[in-house]
């Protein structure tokens, strides 16, 4: 039921780009993306709906391919503040599931 | 607005004890969820509710119970605590499901240790 994320971890230098992938075995109507800083609660980044366009949030954007049941999160010109664990979330009959997370570490 | 409020923030329980984790939201959200997050892992859905009086199991409900007598409150009850229940517990709420383009708001978590 849970979506599958890859990679599990990424180490970047400031200014580098990263892509985080999320896929599901179930049909997807929407995908959420959240970021969690160490010791804190997850915080909403964006939602992508079936038939919707690619969304963006500062230099973080995402795409949603409902045919392939996949979503990707794009982090461009990463900043130190981007460090954290990124989760995708999907819904199946009112149950909201999260992927296992991708730990992103941005170094100076 | 307070958003989603969880209490307590930290708790140490002995094996076999019981406790209730409190969760309250002031956003008039219909949907509420309980997740547990083990160290370095993702969020696992324990129970969820789509409105007052309606609850259902998630992925890992064993050892837990919930109730939803009001829209605002969604307490999680642990009976006979076991070391395997050591985790961080997050409560979340949303106005509706992702189908209606609504985000989930999280509480700050309850860090529970069972010894």
Largest sheet of chain A: 6 strands, mixed
The beta-strand count of chain A equals 11
**Which consecutive residue ranges of chain A, at least 5 long each, have pLDDT under 50?**
none
User: Helix amount of chain B, in percent?
Assistant: under 10%
Beta-strand proportion of chain B: over 45%
- What is the succession of H and E elements of chain A? EEEEEEEEEEE
Shape of chain B: globular
Average predicted confidence as pLDDT of chain B: 92
Give the N-terminus to C-terminus distance of chain B in angstroms: 36 Å
Q: What characteristic shape of chain A results from the CA principal axes?
A: globular
> Would you tell me the structural class of the helices and strands of chain B?
mainly beta
Class from helix and strand fractions of chain A: mainly beta
Mean pLDDT value of chain A = 89
Order of helices and strands of chain B: EEEEEEEEEEE
Major sheet description of chain B: 7 strands, mixed
């Amino acid at each position: 039921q849970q979506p599958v994320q890859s990679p599990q971890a990424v180490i970047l230098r400031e200014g580098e780009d990263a892509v985080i992938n999320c896929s599901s075995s179930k049909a997807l109507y929407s995908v959420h993306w959240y970021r969690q800083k160490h010791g804190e609660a997850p915080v909403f980044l964006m939602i992508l709906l079936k038939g919707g366009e690619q969304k963006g949030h500062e230099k973080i954007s995402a795409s949603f391919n409902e045919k392939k049941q996949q979503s990707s999160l794009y982090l461009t010109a990463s900043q130190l503040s981007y460090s954290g664990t990124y989760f995708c979330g999907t819904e199946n009959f009112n149950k909201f599931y999260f992927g296992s997370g991708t730990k992103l570490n941005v170094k100076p | 607005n307070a958003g989603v409020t969880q209490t307590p923030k930290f708790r140490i329980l002995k094996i076999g004890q019981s406790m209730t984790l409190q969760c309250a939201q002031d956003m008039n959200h219909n949907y509420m969820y309980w997740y547990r997050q083990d160290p370095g892992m993702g969020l696992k859905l324990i129970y969820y509710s789509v409105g007052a009086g309606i609850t259902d199991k998630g992925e890992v409900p064993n050892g837990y119970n919930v109730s939803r007598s009001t829209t605002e409150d969604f307490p999680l009850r642990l009976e006979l605590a076991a070391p395997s229940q050591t985790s961080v517990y997050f409560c979340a709420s949303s106005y509706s499901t992702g189908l209606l383009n609504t985000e989930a708001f999280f509480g700050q978590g309850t860090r529970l240790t069972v010894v």
